[in-house]
Amino acid sequence: MKNFDFIIVGSGLSGSSLAYFLSKNRKKILIIDDSQPNSASRIAAGIIHPITGRRIVKTWNADALIPFTENYYREIEKISGQKFFNPMPVLEIFSSVKNRNDWHARSADDSYRKYFDKELSNVEIEKYLNAPWGGVLLHHSAYLDVAEYLSAIKNVIENEPEFVNEKFLPEDLDVKSNGVTWKDVKAGKIIFCEGSRAVHNPFFKRIPFLPAKGEMLLFRSKNLPNDYIINQSMSVLPVGNNYFKAGATFEWGFKDELPTEAGRNKIKSFLKKILKADFEITGHYAAVRPTIQNRKPVIGLHPENNNIGILNGIGTKGVLLAPYFASRLAEFLAEGKSIMPKVDMKRFFTSG
Q: In this predicted model, what pLDDT tens digit does every residue of 67-96 receive, in sequence order?
């Protein structure tokens, strides 16, 4: 029988970050994951965007999340010697005169000013884009090469955690008051970082998961700029060598996790509307995002058994949220620090 401090189920953005922070506290870890190629982490565009375009508000907790996340990814780059974090401005395209005026008003707010770079007129971008009202460039935005990051983080986690490449089945777990047993493994606690699969986990039936399917296209174009991310309801992300990612769609009540013709056509329509350049579609992907009804992450230990924990609900902003809340959860588990009530899983287990 092998003994560990923690079993972590899932090695995507959440699970890998949590393993890293727990390992820094000298904890012995077993990771279980069957590494599904279409998981949300593995096909995510990886964009960090400081301001939500539709409502023109800062990403929730942005002033704390963004500097922490920037420092975290740079730390992993330095340790691993791999490059995957790419600061890049977002060009937010104005949708109307009113929308442009609303952005002007927001840029005068002191708490927003540091995120604004400069406005680009229609004349400056008309060669590439249909943007009659121009747009604004935003600072503190970036994209993460998620696949490269997941490769790097596995190589820098201390204490060399063991990894089991298989699908976790709840019926294989025996939960007791003094720990958990999974097959021939004993551990003090098990932490589920399993993304959209958590909707089927019997331990978390009271959490209002609302999985959202997203589709994305990969395309090639020789006539688009490669130095900023284009955003207006969907995004166009340059990923090198004249290739771009476009999307993503949102779909609830989906039948499966496969790409659809409807999703492809929706993204193509967006591209034809906003781009003047020709493009060639070279890939089409889909995945299910682990979202929750109030769109806040969920972390912590189960109120009915404190040997079962969770880190989930990172949704569309996984590259921004996962490291920060993995760090908070690791501090709670290893050092006894408190959890922010807004993200504590206990909020779903209160009476009434």
A: 999 999 999 999 999 999 999 999 999 999
- The pTM (predicted TM-score) of the whole model is 0.93
Query: Is pLDDT at 352 greater than 70 in this prediction?
Result: no
The DSSP symbol for 59 reads P
CA distance 201 to 258: 22
Give yes or no for a contact between 61 and 67, defined as CB atoms under 8 angstroms apart.
no
The count of domains in the chain is: 2
φ and ψ at residue 171, rounded to 5 degrees: -70, -15
Alpha-carbon radius of gyration of the chain: 21
Say yes or no to pLDDT of 294 above 70. yes
Residue 273 has pLDDT above 50, yes or no: yes
Statement to judge: residues 161 and 126 lie in one domain: no
Residue keyed to tokens 């969920």: 298
Identify each DSSP E strand in 132-178 by its residue range.
135-138, 142-144, 162-164, 173-176
Q: Which residues contact 99 (CB under 8 A, 6 or more apart)?
A: 133
Q: Any idea what the CATH number is for the domain that residue 121 is in?
A: 3.30.9.10
- Is residue 42 classed as helix, strand or coil in its secondary structure? helix
2-9/29-32 β-pairing:
parallel
Q: What is the pLDDT of residues 107-156, one digit of tens each?
A: 999 999 999 999 999 999 999 999 999 999 999 999 999 999 999 998 89
CA 284-285-289 angle, 5° bins: 150
More confident residue, 37 or 34: 34
Domain membership of residue 26 as a residue range: 2-43+148-208+294-348
Query: 7 with 136, same domain?
Result: no
168: CATH: 3.50.50.60
DSSP state letters, 194-215: -GGGGGG-GGGTTS-B--EEEE
Q: Write the single-letter amino acid at 45.
A: A
133/16 same-domain check: no
Residues 91 and 190 in one domain: no
243 and 344 fall within a common domain: no
What's the rounded Cα separation, in Å, for the pair 352 and 348?
A: 10
